[in-house]
Amino acid sequence: MTDLTGPNLTEERLRSHLDSNQVMRERLCLSILPLLGPYTRERPRRPKGGPDGGRDIEALYNGSSVVWGAVGFRNGGGNDQTARRETKKKFENDLGTALAENSELQVFVFFTNVDLTPGIKDELKQIAIMRGVDVADIFDMEILRHVLDSPEGLLARLQYLAISMSSEEQIALIGKFGDQMRGAILSRFDRVEQILSNMQRFLDFQKPVHRIDVYTSLKGQYNSKDIGTGAVMIEIFGIHGANTRMSILATNAKDHALADSKLVCAPSAPMEQI
């Protein structure tokens, strides 16, 4: 009896877990494409059916070259001559359809859950090159299994093949991405704290102003009687709105009882202007 744990279980799920489920097959391949080479900005075409314009997946290669990809999974996978023959035919058909839509296509990728020999993969790459494609990557069963069992592929394996992580795999995942996950969590907490701080400032600005104190100091020792006739104009902007202004005229109280010993002023009633 085959031990369906570890790599054996991943291989078994790749063969049959997604049988006839093209939507999930394409999503699985899309999620691991960046792990298989310099592929970025990956996106699906029409995984739920309908005309797809000659490709299941689109992406960029080395940040600039357009990539078209096809997902050629076979129900039950396989490593026999029949499975390999059908996969070769599927590759050639998908490549031909892609080139019919885009004769300038330079990068083509092909996913399959069939176990292909190195000779077959070289043959298929040569077919693509002879038809004008610069880069042809073929990701077969063994390549898919290897990346899905790596720390980088464990989450995709869990999501699409429903394979739980062992304690050793969980440790490997944390070891690989622990610092990044902590950084992302802390960064999110920092953003939340900043948002709350800004909200608090906004709420503070909505509170009513009950009192404003203005202090004026003079160079030297003076009292109101020494100064005589004089005044200070105080203007405050934005108390009741961005375009409002409040003006207060504070006159020197030279006749006040304490004018000969202190500085005394008599503010006028505030006048709000727009």
Provide the descriptors you would attach to this structure in a database record.
alpha+beta, Restriction Endonuclease
Ends distance = 89 Å
Largest sheet: 5 strands, mixed
* Largest sheet strand order: 1-2-3-4-5
Structural class estimated from helices and strands: alpha+beta
Number of domains: 2
The CATH topology assignment of the largest domain is: Restriction Endonuclease
In the CATH classification, which architecture of the largest domain applies? 3-Layer(aba) Sandwich
The DSSP helix count reads 8
Secondary-structure element order, N to C: HHEEEHEHEHHHHEEEE
How much of the sequence lies in strands comes to 15-25%
**Helical content, roughly?**
40-55%
Radius of gyration (CA) equals: 37 Å
| C-alpha geometry | elongated
Mean pLDDT: 84
Q: Could you name the CATH class of the largest domain?
A: Alpha Beta
Residue stretches low in confidence (pLDDT < 50, at least 5 long) are none
List how many beta strands DSSP finds.
9
Would you mind describing this structure in some detail?
42% of the residues lie in helices and 18% in strands. By secondary structure, it is an alpha+beta fold. The chain folds into two domains: 6-183, Restriction Endonuclease (3-Layer(aba) Sandwich); 224-273, no CATH class. The strands form two sheets. It has a five-stranded mixed β-sheet. Strands 6, 7, 8 and 9 form a four-stranded antiparallel β-sheet that branches. The chain is elongated and about 115 Å long.
